[in-house]
Amino acid sequence: MAFNTGVQTEIWGKRMANELSDLDRFDRAILSVLAEDGRISITDLARRIGLSKSPTQARLRRLEESGVILGYRALLDPIRLGLDHVAFVEVRLNDTREAALRAFNQAVAKVPEIEQAHMIASHFDYLLKVRTRNMSEYRKFLGETISSLPHVANTSTYVAMEAVKETMLAETT
After folding, report:
1. Which H or E run includes 102?
2. Which end of the chain is more exposed for a tag (fewer CB within 10 A), N or C?
3. Residue 11 sits in which domain range?
4. Over the stretch 49-89, which tens digit does the pLDDT of each residue have?
């Protein structure tokens, strides 16, 4: 499998280390509180982290503008939405040159049933988290959608029986 290693990884690692080292205890507290409650008011956020409203608002704006905070969203309960079938799909591609990887990545990004897609350093190339209503819907999705993604050679499916832990990034320490 072809990977972008070396210089890009080193640059990304240094950038992330610099951004994380630039965060003080108040920034980390803001991130921790927002990870739990993204709808908290500035007044309540300021009170929770021990700063006044103006510096809290300025810090929040800086965290948003610098890209540490990517956005805000509602967390939906997939079970109540009838989407309780979760499958993890190993995908092996028949071509791992950069153009093929890019084509696969772009196609995956357009498929709403694929909640997560990770390029993996293993005997397969990608690991997908797929959510559907039931096994029958998943079987059809696998045959019609995943199998028709660019450069897919073969797949292996693992069905989740229970989610023991599913969290977003909540700890910043």
Report:
1. helix 98-109
2. C
3. 7-65
4. 999 999 999 999 999 999 999 999 888 898 899 999 999 99
Residue 161 has φ and ψ, to the nearest 5°, of: -90, -30
Give the number of other CB atoms < 10 A from CB of residue 162. Answer: 5
- Phi and psi at 140, nearest 5°, equal -65, -40
Q: Which of 164, 143, 148, 151 is nearest to 86 (CA)?
A: 164
Asked whether residue 167 is assigned to any structural domain, the reply reads no
* Whether residues 116 and 50 fall in one domain: no
- In the block, tokens 């998943």 appear at 138
Give yes or no for residue 11 having a pLDDT over 90. no
d(CA 64, CA 55): 14
**β partners of residue 111:** none
3-class DSSP state of 18:
helix
In this structure, are 12 and 60 located in the same domain? yes
* CATH number, residue 32: 1.10.10.10
Residue 76: how many other CB atoms lie within 10 Å = 9
CATH number for position 108: 3.30.70.920
Decide: pTM greater than 0.90: no
Residue 73 falls inside a structural domain = no
